[in-house]
Design a protein that fits this description.
Blueprint (H helix, E strand, L loop, with lengths): L1 H4 L3 H8 L3 H5 L1 H10 L8 H6 L11 H5 L2 H20 L9 E8 L7 H10 L9 E8 L15 H14 L8 E4 L3 E4 L3 H11 L6 E10 L2 E9 L7 E15 L9 E17 L3 E8 L12 E9 L5 E9 L10
Helix pairs in contact: 4-7
């Protein structure tokens, strides 16, 4: 059945939406392809529906038979890579990341457009090939005005306060975006975000990598490496766990009656190390029982290197993070 359904190599490439060289060297090139943020999409029903159309191509059959093994391997790689790559050591070329922080609140009527903009860019590639990694940081100072944001924490309020001091602002505000710790602007301003992303493409970055992460008792053990440092100045290594997607029905306040959706919602943030030179280390991040992370949600672990004084972010990495593996542990 496989041979008769896949008589045309071009058909397979078209249906799976994979570049042609990928099916000729499926494993190595698929890892590289996924590292660029692209997702293979193979639909078995499309293959079955097209069985008759592509089952008799005469002289083309012999060359295709020679590629059946590679195609089958490609199918296998597509089905297993999401799990395999999330657990594997990172041998693929480093992905350049630009970090976009959004300070927001469910109590602010100006914030939903900014939430939508973050959802639009999070996980996408810029024109210059950088991966945009968003973090939605919900502040607390709107909570006194009728609605307590369930995702808010003083941790993110304090972080925004430090940015306000560094940028010389008269006060904090929402929605606010900060790109790689270097540029700030109103979080719903898409034109400013596009310009900021273009500017960050010119910045040099260190090579920061999450090598592995796992739950160990009441903490998260993170093995990371940092190389190609740009100077001897100290860098703070910050770890954040995010919910990939979160929803909330707001009952009161400026957004009362609305159902809001958020992406990359920060649930815990901690400075885990300070480095001055190339480093390969394992750090343990305590899990807080009140951090609000749910077992049902999908998560990411984000690690970034930031200059002292909450300055420029000079390197980042982000990987899917499975809390479900620790479901029976005492957290």
């Amino acid at each position: 059945m496989l041979a008769s359904s896949l008589m045309s190599r071009s058909f397979f490439i078209r249906r799976c939406q994979l570049p042609e060289p990928l099916c000729l060297a499926p494993v190595a090139l698929l890892e590289l392809w996924r590292a660029k943020g692209l997702q293979p999409r193979c639909n078995p029903r499309d293959l079955d529906a097209s069985h008759e159309r592509f089952s008799s191509e005469g002289p083309e059959m012999n060359p295709v038979r020679k590629t059946i093994t590679a195609i089958a391997a490609c199918l296998l790689a597509v089905s297993t890579l999401p799990t395999a790559l999330s657990q594997a050591k990172h041998t693929e070329p480093p992905q350049s990341i630009v970090l976009v922080e959004l300070f927001t609140s469910e109590g602010c009527s100006s914030c939903p457009p900014a939430d939508e903009l973050l959802r639009k860019v999070n996980g996408r590639l810029t024109a210059t090939g950088q991966l945009v990694v968003g973090i939605s940081e919900h502040v607390t100072y709107w909570n006194r005005l009728g609605w307590t944001d369930p995702f808010s924490s003083s941790t993110y309020t304090d972080r925004q306060d430090r940015y306000a001091t560094r940028f010389g602002l008269d006060s904090v505000y929402t929605p606010q975006m900060v790109v790689d710790g270097q540029q700030q602007f109103v979080g719903s301003n898409e034109a400013r975000l596009s310009q900021a992303l273009a500017n960050q493409a010119k910045e040099k970055k260190i090579n920061l990598r999450i090598l592995s992460s796992e739950i160990q008792g009441g903490s998260i053990a993170i093995h990371f490496s940092a190389t190609q440092l740009l100077s001897k100045r100290p860098l703070n290594i910050v770890a954040i766990v995010t919910d990939d997607l979160a929803t909330s029905k707001v009952l009161r306040g400026e957004n009362g009656g609305r159902s809001l959706q958020h992406v990359a919602v920060a649930r815990s943030l901690a400075t885990v190390a300070t480095i001055h030179q190339d480093t390969d280390a394992t750090v343990n991040v305590p899990r807080n029982r009140s951090d609000g992370i749910t077992w049902e949600s999908a998560h990411h672990l984000i690690l970034f290197a930031q200059e002292a004084g909450q300055g420029a972010i000079v390197g980042s990495d982000a990987k899917p993070f499975a809390l479900a593996t620790a479901r029976g542990e005492n957290l």
